[in-house]
Amino acid sequence: MPSTPDWPALLSDALAHNPHHSARYIQLATLSDSGDVTCRTLVCRRWLPDTGTLVATTDLRSHKVRGLRRHEQAEACWYLPARSEQFRLRGTVTLTGAEQGSSLREEIWEALPDTGKVLFTGPAPGTPLPPGYHGPDSTPPAHLPDCFALLTLQPVRVDYLNLSTSPHQRWLFEYHRGDAMRRQWHARGLVP
Ligand SMILES: Cc1cc2nc3c(=O)[nH]c(=O)nc-3n(C[C@H](O)[C@H](O)[C@H](O)COP(=O)(O)O)c2cc1C
Q1: What is the CA(64)–ligand 1 centre distance, in A?
Q2: Which of 39, 64, 72, 167 could tie 29 with a disulfide, CB 3.0–4.6 Å?
Q3: CB 24 near ligand 1, within 6 Å
Q4: Residue 155: what pLDDT?
Q5: Under the phi-then-psi rule, with left for phi > 0, alpha for psi from -120 to 50, and beta for the rest, what region is 84?
Q6: Does ligand 1 lie within 6 Å of residue 125's CB atom?
Q7: Mutate-to-test residue for ligand 1 from 20, 28, 39, 43, highest number of ligand atoms within 8 A of CB
Q8: Whose C-alpha lies nearest to ligand 1, atom 19?
Q9: Contacts of 187 by beta carbon, 8 Å cutoff, 6+ apart
Q10: Is the CB–ligand 1 distance for residue 162 below 6 Å?
């Protein structure tokens, strides 16, 4: 049995072995406002190992946001192919829009390519295609649009699977109360 790992270190190490942009896509499952399960691909724009937080961006007018305003729980599934590793990160999502005044929101917006910025200028995602609509403007907006938001996932449960080792490895990390009511991570190995 290998020694107990630490999941942020495992994820940082996995990302170092998967430097390509396509390895920054996560699948985020949430509940819709009517309680149906729904899932989509997002780009993980920041991984903050010190807090164990994932940051993506989204449009506040989208369906996922409507669902998240009712049900803040979500699970991200992140497959990192270089060593066949899967992380399932479950926790709560926080949305940071214009009202919250975040410097990280501005920083991530500035780093977006123009092709990403223009997506926030068109009609709301998931609404019927307007007649004659041929896509957003080709010039990015002069100001940071109000609908541009950070979507931050704070995991409280991480299920890690590695299929590149023999035997395969699976670890479950759960964040709950420990001694003296301090919250801490607990890890246990599972049958893969
Ligand atoms: C490769 C890829 C990357 C994507 N990245 C994002 C993203 O970073 N943020 C986002 O809101 N949607 C992204 N999308 C679009 C979403 O998957 C989804 O279609 C959109 O957010 C609307 O989802 P919703 O109706 O569940 O709100 C991406 C799609 C693909 C295929």
Answers
A1: 10
A2: 39
A3: no
A4: 97
A5: left
A6: yes
A7: 43
A8: 40
A9: 4, 5, 6, 7, 171, 172, 173
A10: no
Residue 24 included in any domain: yes
- Contacts of the segment 176-185: beta carbons below 8 A, 24+ positions apart: 185/6, 185/7
Report CA(157)–ligand 1 centroid distance (Å).
23
Q: Which residue's CA lies nearest to atom 25 of ligand 1?
A: 63
pLDDT category at 2 given cuts 50, 70, 90 is low
Q: What is the CATH number of the domain that holds 40?
A: 2.30.110.10
- Give tens-digit pLDDT for 46-63: 999 999 999 999 999 999
Query: What average pLDDT does range 77-87 have in this prediction?
Result: 98
Q: Per the structure, how many domains does the chain have?
A: 1
User: What range defines the domain where residue 175 resides?
Assistant: 7-124+136-189
Is ligand 1 within 6 A of the CB of residue 57? yes
Amino acid at 63: H
**Residue 16 in domain:** yes
Mean predicted confidence (pLDDT) in 171-178: 88
Q: What is the pLDDT of residues 98-137, one digit of tens each?
A: 999 899 999 999 999 999 999 999 999 999 999 999 998 8
